[in-house]
Prior knowledge:
Layout: E1 7-9, E2 12-14, E3 19-20, E4 24-25, E5 30-32, E6 35-38, E7 42-45, H1 53-64, E8 71-73, H2 79-82, H3 85-91, E9 96-99, H4 101-111, E10 119-121, E11 127-129, E12 134-139, E13 149-153, E14 158-160, H5 177-189, H6 193-204, E15 210-212, H7 223-234, E16 240-247, H8 253-267, E17 273-277, H9 283-292, E18 293-303, E19 306-307, H10 309-320, E20 326-334, H11 340-347, E21 354-364, H12 369-382
Parallel strand pairs: 7-8, 8-9, 9-10, 14-15, 16-17, 16-18, 18-20, 20-21
Antiparallel strand pairs: 1-6, 2-5, 3-4, 6-7, 11-12, 12-13, 13-14, 18-19
Helix pairs in contact: 5-9, 6-7, 8-12
Flavin mononucleotide binds at residues 249-255, 301-305, 333-338, 365.
Amino acid sequence: MEITKDIQYVGVNDHQIDLFEGQYVVENGMAYNSYMIMDEKIAVCDTVDAHFTEKWLGNINAVLDGKKPDYLIVHHMEPDHSASIDAFIKTFPETKIVSSAKAFVMMKQFFGIDYPDNQLVVKEGDTLSLGTHELTFVTAPMVHWPEVIVSYDSKDKVLFSADAFGKFGALDVEEDWACEARRYYIGIVGKYGVQVQTLLKKAANLDIQIICPLHGPVLTENLGYYLDLYNIWSSYGVESEGVVIAYASIYGHTKQAAEELAALLEKKGCPEVTITDLARDDMAEAVEDAFRYGKLVLAAPTYNGDVFPFMKEFINHLTERNFQNRTIGLIENGTWAPTAARVMTKMLEGCKNLTFTDTTVKILSSLNDDSRKALETLADELI
Ligand SMILES: Cc1cc2nc3c(=O)[nH]c(=O)nc-3n(C[C@H](O)[C@H](O)[C@H](O)COP(=O)(O)O)c2cc1C
């Protein structure tokens, strides 16, 4: 696949994967992107997951057409992009590996060798001339690993963005970009909003016309749309007005309260109401929604003097990703000594800029007139 006259796509689609990074369901598979810049010198950008080494080397050889690559640029050392480095160097032993100093430390850790004869270490602002194309390297520490670099090709105005601007999903499946890019970003990069903001500021100084990420489609049009979304996500801003109701329930009474609240909010004209069962629905999608919308209601039963496990897991996912700037409502249930609301509040206490509603709905086993009235008050507060 041609990206520009000189840049070719040589990545692979993975439809065998069950869980990406050991936890994310990827119904439409995954793409491990790799690119080749064909100039006086030839550069290959990043390798692919170990299951696809042979296919990837085949893609490279087809483009090389008998020539030899001069450089392998390693933007990121996560194994889905780096696992084929060793096979590449065995195939093309004269290639220089261009990467950050930290990446070579990681190569030693992953492969037992840091390729001393092939090393070309780059740091912020270094350039590499391929002939007519010149790459400038920009460090992007903790987006979302410490060794990450991105590179900018001033000739074709391409940003090789590493995992930034990536998404779940193989490239041979058509699907909406934002939904799976948001789930990917919040899940995997979400904790590092400050670092992504730093990268966006550096990128603002470049004339970028094409973004080549390590996952998902190459972005060629309307780049402002993607950059705006990245700005919202990385500044923990509200992307969409609405309320997310995340619930867990053992016998169904908390679920009923969540559903009644959703109906009340819809009746009262809430622009968007999303309801999710934390035990059954995709946890990563629930986390994504919590970061997308401005208001979040947590509804859970008390469990052994604590809160029901799926809610605990959900809140841990939020706090681990620097959840902030949101309005929170709580619904707790318990039969003899309810503690769920207290536990949930405590779990969120380190989060910045959360506003809790005045009303916390307290259910004793099942909804009654008092708790239904509280649900109505909570709905009014959230509107
Ligand atoms: C294993 C287990 C432990 C529980 N621990 C508590 C508890 O510590 N305090 C309490 O008030 N209720 C406790 N409950 C009761 C539930 O929180 C309560 O019945 C609640 O109404 C269930 O809501 P649901 O209908 O949405 O599942 C426990 C229930 C189970 C199954």
